[in-house]
Amino acid sequence: VPRVSQAAVNFRSGENESASLTKRDDFVHCLFAVFHCYISICKYFKITIDDLMSESKKKEIATARQIAMYLCRTLTEMSYPDIGATFNGRDHTTVMYACEQIAKQVDINPDVKLTMEELKNNFIHDIIDADLEANPELKIHTRFPPEPNGYLHIGSAKAIWINASTAKKYGGLFNLRYDDTNPAKEDNEYVESIYE
Predict the structure, then answer these.
(1) Alpha-carbon Rg of the chain, whole angstroms?
(2) Burial class (CB in 10 A: 0-12, 13-18, 19+), 99
Protein backbone atom coordinates (compact mmCIF):
# COMPACT_ATOMS: atom_id res chain seq x y z
CA VAL A 1 0.00 0.00 0.00
CA PRO A 2 2.74 2.60 0.76
CA ARG A 3 4.11 2.17 -2.78
CA VAL A 4 0.73 2.92 -4.33
CA SER A 5 0.06 5.75 -1.91
CA GLN A 6 3.34 7.47 -2.79
CA ALA A 7 2.52 7.23 -6.49
CA ALA A 8 -0.79 8.95 -5.87
CA VAL A 9 0.77 11.67 -3.73
CA ASN A 10 3.45 12.31 -6.35
CA PHE A 11 0.77 12.54 -9.04
CA ARG A 12 -1.25 15.13 -7.14
CA SER A 13 1.81 17.09 -6.03
CA GLY A 14 3.06 17.42 -9.57
CA GLU A 15 -0.21 18.87 -10.79
CA ASN A 16 -1.02 21.21 -7.94
CA GLU A 17 2.07 22.86 -6.50
CA SER A 18 0.00 25.86 -5.46
CA ALA A 19 -2.81 23.86 -3.85
CA SER A 20 -3.83 25.02 -0.41
CA LEU A 21 -3.06 22.97 2.68
CA THR A 22 -6.78 22.39 3.10
CA LYS A 23 -7.04 20.84 -0.35
CA ARG A 24 -3.98 18.72 0.31
CA ASP A 25 -5.45 17.53 3.62
CA ASP A 26 -8.71 16.67 1.86
CA PHE A 27 -6.76 14.63 -0.66
CA VAL A 28 -4.92 12.75 2.08
CA HIS A 29 -8.25 11.95 3.72
CA CYS A 30 -9.52 10.68 0.37
CA LEU A 31 -6.45 8.46 0.05
CA PHE A 32 -7.15 7.05 3.52
CA ALA A 33 -10.68 6.16 2.43
CA VAL A 34 -9.46 4.75 -0.89
CA PHE A 35 -6.99 2.36 0.69
CA HIS A 36 -9.57 1.11 3.15
CA CYS A 37 -11.77 0.54 0.11
CA TYR A 38 -8.97 -1.49 -1.51
CA ILE A 39 -8.60 -3.61 1.60
CA SER A 40 -12.35 -4.30 1.73
CA ILE A 41 -12.38 -5.28 -1.95
CA CYS A 42 -9.42 -7.63 -1.50
CA LYS A 43 -10.97 -9.29 1.53
CA TYR A 44 -14.29 -9.72 -0.27
CA PHE A 45 -12.83 -11.20 -3.46
CA LYS A 46 -10.01 -13.05 -1.67
CA ILE A 47 -7.26 -11.41 -3.71
CA THR A 48 -4.18 -9.38 -2.77
CA ILE A 49 -3.41 -5.68 -3.17
CA ASP A 50 -0.79 -6.70 -5.75
CA ASP A 51 -3.50 -8.53 -7.70
CA LEU A 52 -5.69 -5.43 -7.61
CA MET A 53 -2.88 -3.20 -8.86
CA SER A 54 -1.64 -5.66 -11.47
CA GLU A 55 -2.29 -5.76 -15.21
CA SER A 56 -3.98 -9.16 -14.84
CA LYS A 57 -6.95 -9.75 -17.16
CA LYS A 58 -8.33 -12.64 -15.07
CA LYS A 59 -12.06 -12.09 -14.76
CA GLU A 60 -12.24 -12.13 -10.96
CA ILE A 61 -9.33 -9.69 -10.64
CA ALA A 62 -10.49 -7.39 -13.45
CA THR A 63 -14.00 -7.28 -11.96
CA ALA A 64 -12.65 -6.53 -8.49
CA ARG A 65 -10.50 -3.75 -9.96
CA GLN A 66 -13.45 -2.17 -11.76
CA ILE A 67 -15.58 -2.35 -8.63
CA ALA A 68 -12.79 -0.75 -6.59
CA MET A 69 -12.59 2.12 -9.07
CA TYR A 70 -16.37 2.52 -9.01
CA LEU A 71 -16.53 2.61 -5.22
CA CYS A 72 -13.65 5.08 -5.02
CA ARG A 73 -15.53 7.34 -7.40
CA THR A 74 -18.90 7.05 -5.62
CA LEU A 75 -17.63 7.15 -2.03
CA THR A 76 -15.03 9.91 -2.31
CA GLU A 77 -14.63 13.21 -4.13
CA MET A 78 -11.58 12.01 -6.04
CA SER A 79 -11.39 12.72 -9.76
CA TYR A 80 -10.92 10.05 -12.42
CA PRO A 81 -7.22 10.98 -12.90
CA ASP A 82 -6.59 10.86 -9.14
CA ILE A 83 -8.20 7.42 -8.85
CA GLY A 84 -6.17 6.23 -11.82
CA ALA A 85 -3.03 7.45 -10.10
CA THR A 86 -3.72 5.23 -7.08
CA PHE A 87 -3.89 2.27 -9.48
CA ASN A 88 -0.24 2.66 -10.47
CA GLY A 89 -0.89 5.54 -12.83
CA ARG A 90 -3.69 4.12 -14.94
CA ASP A 91 -5.23 6.53 -17.42
CA HIS A 92 -8.40 8.36 -16.36
CA THR A 93 -10.30 6.88 -19.32
CA THR A 94 -9.72 3.42 -17.85
CA VAL A 95 -11.33 4.55 -14.61
CA MET A 96 -14.23 6.15 -16.46
CA TYR A 97 -14.86 2.96 -18.42
CA ALA A 98 -14.76 0.85 -15.22
CA CYS A 99 -17.22 3.17 -13.46
CA GLU A 100 -19.59 3.16 -16.43
CA GLN A 101 -19.55 -0.64 -16.69
CA ILE A 102 -20.25 -1.20 -12.99
CA ALA A 103 -22.93 1.52 -12.93
CA LYS A 104 -24.74 -0.25 -15.78
CA GLN A 105 -24.59 -3.55 -13.92
CA VAL A 106 -25.91 -1.95 -10.73
CA ASP A 107 -28.90 -0.67 -12.69
CA ILE A 108 -29.81 -3.97 -14.35
CA ASN A 109 -28.48 -6.69 -12.05
CA PRO A 110 -29.94 -6.94 -8.51
CA ASP A 111 -27.09 -9.23 -7.43
CA VAL A 112 -24.47 -6.66 -8.42
CA LYS A 113 -26.42 -3.93 -6.65
CA LEU A 114 -26.56 -6.07 -3.50
CA THR A 115 -22.82 -6.71 -3.73
CA MET A 116 -22.16 -2.96 -3.94
CA GLU A 117 -24.23 -2.30 -0.83
CA GLU A 118 -22.48 -5.07 1.06
CA LEU A 119 -19.08 -3.72 0.06
CA LYS A 120 -20.02 -0.19 1.15
CA ASN A 121 -21.00 -1.52 4.57
CA ASN A 122 -17.78 -3.55 4.77
CA PHE A 123 -15.83 -0.43 3.84
CA ILE A 124 -17.31 1.55 6.74
CA HIS A 125 -16.86 -1.31 9.20
CA ASP A 126 -13.25 -1.90 8.13
CA ILE A 127 -12.43 1.70 9.03
CA ILE A 128 -14.15 1.30 12.41
CA ASP A 129 -12.32 -1.99 13.03
CA ALA A 130 -8.98 -0.31 12.32
CA ASP A 131 -9.82 2.55 14.71
CA LEU A 132 -10.89 0.13 17.45
CA GLU A 133 -7.75 -1.95 16.99
CA ALA A 134 -5.64 1.17 17.46
CA ASN A 135 -7.75 2.42 20.37
CA PRO A 136 -9.92 -0.27 22.03
CA GLU A 137 -11.43 2.29 24.41
CA LEU A 138 -13.27 4.08 21.60
CA LYS A 139 -17.07 4.03 21.75
CA ILE A 140 -19.12 3.98 18.55
CA HIS A 141 -21.77 6.68 18.43
CA THR A 142 -23.58 7.29 15.14
CA ARG A 143 -26.31 9.72 14.22
CA PHE A 144 -28.65 10.62 11.42
CA PRO A 145 -30.00 14.16 11.35
CA PRO A 146 -33.00 14.17 8.98
CA GLU A 147 -34.72 17.37 8.06
CA PRO A 148 -38.44 16.80 8.76
CA ASN A 149 -39.77 19.16 6.12
CA GLY A 150 -40.98 16.23 4.05
CA TYR A 151 -41.28 12.46 4.06
CA LEU A 152 -38.08 10.43 4.07
CA HIS A 153 -36.85 9.30 0.67
CA ILE A 154 -35.26 5.88 0.23
CA GLY A 155 -31.73 7.26 0.61
CA SER A 156 -32.57 8.82 3.98
CA ALA A 157 -34.18 5.63 5.22
CA LYS A 158 -31.18 3.61 4.14
CA ALA A 159 -28.76 6.00 5.85
CA ILE A 160 -30.75 5.59 9.07
CA TRP A 161 -30.51 1.80 8.76
CA ILE A 162 -26.75 1.84 8.08
CA ASN A 163 -26.00 4.12 11.03
CA ALA A 164 -28.36 2.29 13.40
CA SER A 165 -27.15 -1.20 12.44
CA THR A 166 -23.51 -0.11 12.68
CA ALA A 167 -24.06 1.23 16.20
CA LYS A 168 -25.84 -2.00 17.15
CA LYS A 169 -23.05 -4.18 15.73
CA TYR A 170 -20.42 -2.44 17.86
CA GLY A 171 -22.56 -2.03 20.98
CA GLY A 172 -22.67 1.70 20.50
CA LEU A 173 -25.28 4.44 20.49
CA PHE A 174 -27.38 5.87 17.69
CA ASN A 175 -29.08 9.27 17.73
CA LEU A 176 -32.00 10.09 15.47
CA ARG A 177 -32.75 13.80 15.44
CA TYR A 178 -36.17 15.19 14.60
CA ASP A 179 -35.25 18.85 14.38
CA ASP A 180 -34.61 20.78 11.20
CA THR A 181 -32.06 23.40 10.24
CA ASN A 182 -35.05 25.48 9.16
CA PRO A 183 -37.72 25.13 11.91
CA ALA A 184 -40.19 27.26 9.95
CA LYS A 185 -40.60 24.40 7.50
CA GLU A 186 -41.02 21.67 10.13
CA ASP A 187 -44.26 19.77 10.35
CA ASN A 188 -45.09 17.30 13.10
CA GLU A 189 -46.62 14.99 10.51
CA TYR A 190 -43.16 14.40 9.03
CA VAL A 191 -41.60 13.97 12.46
CA GLU A 192 -44.17 11.28 13.29
CA SER A 193 -43.55 9.53 9.98
CA ILE A 194 -39.82 9.31 10.79
CA TYR A 195 -40.65 7.92 14.22
CA GLU A 196 -42.97 5.28 12.73
Answers:
(1) 19
(2) buried
